[in-house]
Amino acid sequence: MIKFGIATLLSSALLSCVTGSNGPEYRESRVVERIGKAKETPTWAEGTVTMYEDGQDAIFTSIMTMSGDSRPEACLKAADLDSRSMMLRHIKDTLTASGQLNEVSASSDPGYEGLVAFLSQGKITGAKTTERYWEKAEESDTTGTRVLRLRCAVKVAVKKIELQRQMREATDVKSGNAEIRKKLLQAQGDFIESLNPLKKGDSNSENL
């Protein structure tokens, strides 16, 4: 009887392992359609790197997902409209996470307030959309049901020197603590310097 029980437990465990090993394969996303019948997702649209440099430009990738029955153009437009504010929000979060802004305890300093206001308003001069991409993919929802999703991405570029100029002007106020302003400017410069080139890959997308 004990042997039977052990055999039953082993069989159940084996069945569980087989079922578990099949799970990830079932949940894997499968692309069924791409813009311009492209064969691969371009590297910049994969979403693994949010912001990087390309020569003299700072590049930000805005990605949005909608239901599969949505129009690609509507999805791309939504991603484009949201891209500038998302870029500045990303910069704000990165600067804050760096520790330099926390160290100076500058929440009430005019220079800090000016920078935060600039990064929060969602407007940036000189930024332009240079590429667009979309794809439709089958994937599993939380219940395991296969659903169709539309994923789109836009690439926004702004000159690094122009981006730094706008952040500097937002920080450069007449009043306030000079030491705090110095650290704020240093944090901005460090952020620009931290941008790395994106590793080159397939570039199937719509150039603008």
Q: Summary?
A:
This protein has helices at 2-27, 72-97, 100-103, 110-121, 160-171, 178-194; strands spanning 30-34, 51-54, 57-67, 128-140, 146-159, 206-207.
Question: What do these coordinates show?
Answer:
The protein is of the alpha+beta class and 208 residues long. It has six helices and six strands, in the order αβββαααββααβ. Strands 1, 2, 3, 4, 5 and 6 form a six-stranded antiparallel beta sheet that branches. The radius of gyration is 24 Å and the shape is elongated. The chain starts with a helix and ends with a strand.
Low-pLDDT residue intervals, each spanning 5 or more residues: 1-19
**Structural class, judged by helices and strands?**
alpha+beta
Describe the biggest sheet? 6 strands, antiparallel
Strand coverage percent: 15-25%
The secondary-structure element order is HEEEHHHEEHHE
Count, helices: 6
**C-alpha Rg, in Å?**
24 Å
- The overall pLDDT average reads 83
User: What form results from the Cα inertia axes?
Assistant: elongated
- The helix content is 40-55%
CATH class: Alpha Beta
CA(first)-CA(last) distance: 73 Å
Annotation, overall tally of beta strands:
6
Oligomer: single chain
Give the CATH architecture.
Answer: Roll
Q: In CATH terms, what is the fold-level topology?
A: Thiol Ester Dehydrase, Chain A
How many discrete domains? 1
